[in-house]
Amino acid sequence: MSLHRHEDGRFYPGTGAADEVGSMGAEGYCVNIPWSRGGVGDKDYIFAFEQVVLPIALDFNPDFTIISAGFDAARGDPLGCCDVTPAGYASMTQMLSALSGGKLLVILEGGMMDLSTAAVYACILQWVKALGQNQVLLGESHVIDMDNTVPSKSGLRSVLDVLKIQMNFWPTLETNFTKLHSKWGSYAFQDTRKQSKKRRKTGVPIWWRCGQNSLLYDYIADCPSSCVQNPVVITPVDVDS
């Protein structure tokens, strides 16, 4: 299972679409959750864990869980340009610690910039706690209240797309898809046609850096509305790089 920035294949390395589900008899054993934009943060990641990752993992019932701990999605990373906080990483780690009876292999991956250190530390706290060590000596790591996790519109679209595809292989997901679609379906897709027309007219996407929060957006219209009230520094980023 992989959660990653994808942007319809425009973001490096271009693979990992939702319909890449595996082949040669292994269909359904590859689960991609591709984000359609940069700036994706805690709520979308945890929402995807709740709706897709954990239901499939629990149904699969693994003997062992391997976590490829990449921190490119960490807030402030100049390449991933997403917005996952240390609390977000800690929450995801806590959710995964319930699998496989706590038998986890955690492999440190990329995104190892200075700002990611806090995220790594938060995850380590959760891993050690999962082993039953003394929590008082370690100190408490703040995790996110997952009872009120509301995704962004683009995050909801991505999760619905994945559920629609993966429920063909994991029937347990059909309930989640039906509930989410009946509750938020019209909201999630109400402006899809308008967005598509806007992007076709724009042509090759150019990423813009928002001066308010230093996140990258593929179109200036995707910048938060609050930016209108503040000066914005816009810098074109070379698409080919």
Automatic annotation (TrEMBL):
GO terms for molecular function: histone deacetylase activity, hydrolytic mechanism. Its main location: nucleus. GO terms for biological process: epigenetic regulation of gene expression. Keywords: Chromatin regulator, Hydrolase, Nucleus, Repressor, Transcription, Transcription regulation. One of its GO terms (cellular component) is histone deacetylase complex. It comes from the Eukaryota. Pfam families: Hist_deacetyl. It is an enzyme of class 3 (hydrolase). It is found in: Nucleus. Its EC number is 3.5.1.98. InterPro entries: His_deacetylse_dom, His_deacetylse_dom_sf, Ureohydrolase_dom_sf. Residues 1-120 form the Histone deacetylase domain. Belongs to the histone deacetylase family. HD type 2 subfamily. This is histone deacetylase. It comes from Anisodus tanguticus.
